[in-house]
Specification:
By secondary structure, the chain is mainly α. It has two domains: 271 residues, Fic-like fold, CATH 1.10.3290; 97 residues, Arc Repressor Mutant, subunit A, CATH 1.10.10.10. The protein has 15 helices and five strands. Strand 1 and strand 2 form a beta hairpin. Helix 6 packs antiparallel against helix 7 and helix 7 crosses helix 11. The longest helix has 36 residues. The radius of gyration is 22 Å and the shape is globular. The mean pLDDT is 88.
Length: 375
């Protein structure tokens, strides 16, 4: 990947910014070794998707939640999984950081759903960004809109920054080119995702949230071009190797495409393999829970609540009532039954909700399983 430096003016002082070459000019010359790595990664993603159980929807939400939590942690936004799960239902029940992370989850989920429906557009990127920024401090006019000022990464200004992305005037053309590359069907999806993500981070088109939107673009590419139900939570593995990630982005910008794609393919491969393990562990846990409820009728609300816990590892009586179509008293009885068996534990949220907040309960074993996996 090539590009050029351009001179900019920063408070009456000269500085330099980087403008990457368009992807339409990119030669995808990869070594045989790297090509084989991308093939193995793609095969692992497909295997993981094929292993999803028939009732995969609740599990899908859990895997996407892991992706959202991990992607946020790369940017230094960390919040316990229980708080994030609660924030998805009531953003006033938990600290604001959890709501920010939950916004990331919603942005990823929206992108994955859209990938099954049609080609990528600039409007899609803007919509993901608006959803991501719901609880941010970014001004309203900057949400879902390209930055109008010079940005930089690291340092206190473009004068001492680690990286200075293109000036605002270049963004529209570069993003249009990126979207065109995203919709091509003649590139292997792993290489395509690697290039799209790195180019998006190089352009850095928004005032905030570029890392998270760029990783959302990975999920979109995998689902769109590999025709799988769910992408593996790649951000989980990226979060475990931030040094390798940042080094890889630098390699991409300096023309070492083969090294970046090779590193990225290995991350996708290990992410897909880890997903298989997690899916099996969750299945084993839910089966064990089911065994604990053999004394209850098959139609008991407590039994029907079990399968949705991967989707909602933190629940309240109003949530259960709405999700299962039962009364709140019936929901409370079901929750109490699971709590008595150690499947659920009451939480102590001291949030900002007005009035008397509902009692929240967490499926601790499930939360711990995913939290340990995310890291």
């Amino acid at each position: 990947m090539g590009g050029r430096e351009v001179e900019i003016n920063w408070r009456e002082r000269p500085a330099r910014a980087w403008v990457p070459d368009p992807l339409s000019e990119l030669a995808l010359d990869l070594s045989i070794k790297t090509v084989r790595q991308t093939e193995r990664a793609a095969a692992a993603v497909i295997r993981a998707a094929d292993r999803l159980p028939p009732n995969w929807e609740p599990l899908a939400r859990l895997l996407l939640r892991a992706e959202g939590v991990a992607s946020s942690s790369v940017e230094g936004l960390r919040s316990p999984l229980v708080e994030v799960a609660a924030a998805e239902v009531d953003d006033g029940a938990v600290p604001s950081t959890a709501a920010w992370v939950a916004d990331n989850l919603e942005s990823v989920a929206e992108a994955v759903a859209g990938a099954r429906e049609g080609a990528l557009t600039v409007a899609d990127l803007d919509r993901w960004h608006r959803r991501l920024m719901v609880h941010s401090l970014l001004p309203d006019e900057a949400r879902g809109a390209f930055r109008t000022a010079q940005g930089w990464i690291g340092g206190s200004s473009p004068l001492d920054a680690v990286y200075v992305p293109p000036p605002p005037g270049y963004i529209t053309g570069l993003v249009d080119d990126l979207v065109g590359f995203a919709n091509r069907a003649d590139i292997d999806p792993v290489t395509q995702a690697a290039v799209l993500h790195a180019q998006f981070e190089t352009i850095h088109p928004y005032g905030d949230g570029n890392g998270r939107i760029g990783r959302t673009l990975i999920a979109w590419t995998v689902v769109r071009h590999m025709r799988v139900t769910l992408p593996p939570p790649v951000s989980v593995l990226i979060a475990r190797d931030p040094g390798g990630y940042l080094s890889g982005l630098h390699q991409f910008r300096t023309g070492e495409l083969d090294r970046w794609v090779g590193w990225f393919a290995e991350v996708v491969l290990r992410s897909a393999q880890a997903t298989l393990t997690l899916v099996d562990d969750i299945g084993t846990l839910v089966d064990a829970w089911t065994t604990q409820l053999t004394d209850l009728r098959a139609d008991a609300t407590a039994r029907t609540l079990l399968p949705i816990l991967p989707e909602h590892p933190v629940v309240s009586a109003p949530l259960v009532a709405a999700r299962l179509g039962v009364s709140e008293p019936a929901a409370r009885t079901a929750i109490s039954s699971l709590a008595a068996r150690g499947i659920l534990r009451e939480l102590d949220f001291k949030g900002a909700s007005r009035g008397r907040p509902p009692a929240w309960y967490a499926a601790d074993q499930l939360v711990d399983l995913v939290s340990h996996w995310v890291g």
